[in-house]
UniProtKB/TrEMBL annotation:
Gene3D superfamilies registered for this protein in UniProt: 1.25.40.390
Taxonomic placement: Bacteria, Pseudomonadati, Bacteroidota, Flavobacteriia, Flavobacteriales
Keywords in alphabetical order: Cell outer membrane, Membrane, Signal
Protein name: RagB/SusD family nutrient uptake outer membrane protein
Main localization category: membrane
Compartment list: Cell outer membrane
Keyword Iron-sulfur among UniProt keywords: no
Length: 590
């Protein structure tokens, strides 16, 4: 059970982007508890509001930052599936690289991120103007969140708004990625003395600690070269440029320095069960450095989006739950796993307490009905689908007209599944995607089964299809090893890079069905293999777009995507923002 609430928050005050454009003082209050009374300017409430923006859709919903960081890459695609997921073409735009400044995903995410910036500025002001024992800590966390929201905005849009939080009459500032990245790095480095070590001062992985700062700095140094030279047509980024003034060595040296602080700290360890990082009970996860703490509390329920979005509508974890048949991975990404299907990160079968394995291969007859959906009344049997990348014919329980799952005695019957909205179509998650027009990701109704699915995050059935107790990692130890491996490689030390990658491979174990075998070690490493390894460890974790830009893959043609120009490495500023005359549009979008 999750007990790590950040603060006892009664009211969250939401400032919209308009606050950055003028001195508007109208507040739109979102009441998160029936008991009112906490002043919205209270430092704890203001900081909680800034944290809340991380999890209130922004980094936990497939249609938010995920859509921009994953659907634009070889890892993920959300095609139009017959009568579903048309939505004006906004999903297809992401993968086909046809987005404009009016695309709803681009507009909505700008609003979410700039709202995060505004909430952080409010938290800074509230902490700065207060006198209380934790002032320095709250101020450091507020500034760290401001840097995180600003960095993400600069990563995606190339520009970001800012304003002096202590001066309501201060003019709006327009930050540019190529010049602001160095200041962000030095600002976050300066915060470290005032941030808490994780586990002290009531901190946990849901708060911005020193360790979160180390991970964040590693990320910024790893991507600094791209920020400074985004439109480099040949993707010849200078990753070994001297680090920011005041630091020693190159950018990659700093990545190695900060990742090593985390790896050598003894505070974290790799999970032998890779999928435990994304399980319903991962709130005590050994790898989580900075994560969005989620819980189903009927105040701000956690999001189940990353699990729900791939599962088909006829895949039911209980009689009250189903998937939505939206996203899948691409043939290109699936092919990177050729020869690696025995990697513990690729797939995992579920075993019930009585020893029954769900094989999902046509041999299953039934599974126990003894697992019960938490808090369900009447008690509902819980069916567990396998985890990881799921391809081929699918099996599971069938929902009867009576509203219950089909049973064999006191066990859940396992049957071949068909598509809910195309009942003559067998549920067959084909790794291939065969679009009638190869340039458009559109399926006919009888083709909506296609695409291997990603079941990396556990589907939490407790609070309906949309809610979850699964904490969403933003930085975890596996990603830290991956970053250090890339930094070693870019410095020309493939041997040390391979040691880190093999640590990831061999620390993970398969389920006991396969003798708890560890992953196999690499014997050689080149740039292509390194890119694959990053995908093996970090797929579906909002990392692929920055990875693909660093490796020169982002502009390449692929499934339902033609070769693209470097200007697409950043998204356009929303037209509604351009119309306010503060921002100039990014190149290529005029």
């Amino acid at each position: 059970m999750k007990t790590k609430t950040f603060f006892s928050i009664k009211i969250i005050t939401i400032f919209s982007f308009i606050f950055l454009l003028n001195s508007c003082t109208d507040l739109n209050e979102v009441v998160l508890d029936e008991k009112l009374g906490t002043d919205a300017t209270d430092p704890a409430g203001a900081l909680a509001a800034a944290y809340d923006r991380l999890g209130d859709g922004t980094f936990v919903d497939h249609g938010a930052i995920f859509a921009m960081q994953e659907y634009t890459t070889d890892e993920a695609i959300l095609p139009t599936r017959g009568s579903d997921w048309g939505d004006g073409g906004k999903w297809r735009d992401m993968h086909e690289f046809t987005w404009t400044s009016s695309n709803a995903i681009i507009v909505d995410n700008w609003n979410l991120l700039t709202n995060g910036i505004t909430r952080s500025l409010t938290a800074i002001k509230s902490a700065q103007e207060s006198t209380f024992p934790e002032k320095a800590l709250f101020l450091a966390e507020s500034k760290a969140l401001l840097a995180y929201y600003t960095y993400t905005t600069l990563d995606l849009y190339g520009q970001a708004p800012s304003r002096d939080p202590l001066n309501v009459d201060a003019p709006l500032q327009i930050l540019k990625a190529e010049t602001e990245i160095d200041k962000l790095i030095t600002d976050v480095e300066a915060l470290i003395p005032n941030l808490a070590d994780i586990g002290t001062q009531r901190t946990h992985h849901g708060r911005f600690t020193k360790q979160a700062a180390y991970a964040f700095l590693s990320t910024m140094y790893l991507n600094r070269a791209v920020f400074k030279d985004r439109y480099n047509a040949a993707s010849s980024f200078n990753f070994n440029e001297p680090a920011v003034t005041g630091s020693t060595g190159t950018d990659m040296d700093r990545v190695i320095y900060y990742t090593s602080l985390l790896i050598d700290s003894g505070k974290y360890s790799l999970e032998s069960d890779f999928f435990k990082n994304f399980a319903r009970d991962n709130d005590n996860g050994k790898e989580l450095i900075f994560a969005i703490s989620q819980k189903i509390d009927y105040i701000r329920n956690g999001s189940n989006s990353f699990a729900y979005v791939c599962m088909e509508r006829n895949q039911r974890t209980s009689a009250a739950n189903r998937g939505t048949n939206a996203a899948c991975t691409t043939p290109e990404f699936y092919a990177t796993w050729d020869g690696n299907h025995d990697d513990p990160r690729f797939e995992q079968h579920y075993q019930y307490a009585d020893g029954t394995w769900f094989m999902n291969d046509g041999t299953d007859v039934s599974v126990p009905a003894t697992d019960i959906i938490p808090k369900s009344s009447p008690a509902l049997p819980w069916f567990h689908f396998n985890r990881g990348i799921q391809a081929g014919l699918q099996y599971g329980p069938i929902l009867l007209p009576s509203g219950s799952l089909e049973m064999i005695g006191n066990r859940i019957k396992v049957s071949p599944l068909v598509m809910e909205k195309s009942t003559g179509t067998r549920m067959n998650f084909t790794p291939s995607l065969t679009f009638a027009d190869p340039t458009k990701s559109v399926f006919a109704q009888n083709e909506i089964n296609q695409g291997a699915r990603v079941f990396k995050y556990e589907f939490d059935p407790e609070g309906g299809n949309g809610n979850s107790n699964v904490d969403i990692p933003l930085f975890r130890l596996g990603g830290i090893y991956a970053m250090r491996a890339e930094a070693y490689f870019r410095k020309g030390n493939g041997g040390l890079a391979m040691i880190d990658l093999n640590k990831l491979r061999t620390s993970r174990k398969r389920e006991s069905l396969f003798g708890s075998a560890t992953g196999k070690a690499l014997t050689s490493l080149d740039s292509q293999q390194l890119y694959k390894e990053l995908g093996f460890e970090l797929y579906w974790e909002l990392q692929r777009r920055p990875q693909s830009i660093r490796f020169g893959k982002f502009d390449l043609p692929g499934t339902a995507k033609s070769a693209s120009q470097p200007f697409r490495r950043v998204f356009p500023i929303p037209q509604t923002v351009i119309d306010q005359k503060f921002f100039k549009q990014n190149q290529g979008y005029n």
